[in-house]
Design goal:
single chain, mainly alpha, 2 helices, flat
Length: 77
């Protein structure tokens, strides 16, 4: 007699997680495809990573401004 004739709950959970991961992956792929289709055309020779960046010092990001304000407060105390 076989000790484990029926699938265990752990196997059902693994299978369910596998199906969910596949569905999430398919949704991400669909979203990426829609984003690419709706994105406007790029100018030839323009790097999208560098678009909008000007030479010279860049403005601080929000998280940098927040940390800088904390440092100033700490040095004033």
């Amino acid at each position: 007699m076989a000790p484990n004739a029926r699938p265990t709950a752990a196997k059902r959970n693994r299978e369910k997680a596998l199906v969910e991961r596949r569905q999430e992956k398919e949704a991400r792929r669909r979203d990426a495809k829609e984003r690419k289709e709706t994105a406007g055309p790029r100018a030839p020779g323009e790097d999208p990573d560098l678009a909008g960046i000007k030479p010279g010092p860049q403005p601080l990001a929000d998280w940098q401004i927040f940390e800088e304000a904390e440092e100033v407060e700490a040095t004033e105390s």
